[in-house]
Amino acid sequence: MGPRLLLVPLGCLALLMPPPGAAEFSPSLDSDFTFTLPAGRKECFYQPMRKEASLELEYQVLDGAGLDVDFHLLSPKGETLVFDERKSDGVHTVETEDGDYMFCFDNTFSTISEKVIFFELILDNMGEDGQDEEDWKKYVTGTDLLDMKLEDILESINSVKARLSKSVQIQTLLRAFEARDRNIQESNFDRVNFWSMVNLGVMVVVSAVQVYMLKSLFEDKRKSRT
């Protein structure tokens, strides 16, 4: 079965554990997602984790009035691990135990503006690397005459893999920052255009009033002389 994702409103959550057939993230090392959170809504996601693994979550509000949202992270036991109130971004890392972790984005404090939210999950020590290492060890036989053993090659490959994963993470975050900055610039551009048109309209009205008043003064003078 391919990767699955769960996106449900808070009102539909009766228990912390997802119901049978509920969707969820596959245990990959890196997952990112962008979604629109309507005004007055709260959306929650589940991430299954293993014991002694690591869950790193980073989120950013890309668009929406105030660029802020409430964030909650709950353990499989229902304990609140992280609570951010009215923040535009955040980075949190927790050591995990077996079970489904739930994290929620809350926009119920906003009655008008929807928010565009980006978040990224980075999972460490999920067991896949250990399996890869066991597969490599099957071939580590008779390597005494080699200058570099297969263990050293494996260590180098893992180092390159970790750095590549970090590079992909940084590039994803930079794209998120670029999207948020572009939204802010476009919003400022619209505001500048709007107020420029307002100022232009005021100037035209003031000019017309001044011309009318000057014309009236000259007309009054001519009538007084006759």
Give me the Rg, rounded.
Answer: 30 Å
**How many helical elements?**
2
Largest β sheet strand count, sense and barrel closure: 5 strands, antiparallel
> Could you tell me how far the N terminus lies from the C terminus, measured between alpha carbons in angstroms?
99 Å
* Total beta-strand segments: 9
Looking at the structure, the CATH topology of the largest domain is Jelly Rolls
Number of domains: 2
Please identify the top-level CATH class of the largest domain.
Mainly Beta
CATH architectural label of the largest domain: Sandwich
Structural class: alpha+beta
Question: Biggest sheet, strands in spatial order?
Answer: 1-3-8-5-6
Parts with pLDDT < 50 across at least 5 consecutive residues: 1-28
Estimate the strand proportion: 25-35%
Mean pLDDT: 76
Keywords:
single chain, 226 residues, alpha+beta, Jelly Rolls, five-stranded antiparallel beta sheet, four-stranded antiparallel beta sheet, 2 helices, 38% helix, disordered N terminus
Describe this structure in words.
This is TMED5 protein. It is found in: Endoplasmic reticulum membrane; Endoplasmic reticulum-Golgi intermediate compartment membrane; Golgi apparatus, cis-Golgi network membrane; Membrane. The protein is α+β, with helices and mostly antiparallel strands. It has 2 domains: 101 residues, Jelly Rolls (Sandwich); 62 residues. The strands form 2 sheets. The protein has a 5-stranded antiparallel β-sheet with strand order 1-3-8-5-6, with no helix packed on it. Strands 2-9-4-7 form a 4-stranded antiparallel β-sheet, with helices on one face. β5 and β6 form a beta hairpin. The radius of gyration is 30 Å and the shape is elongated. The N terminus is likely disordered.
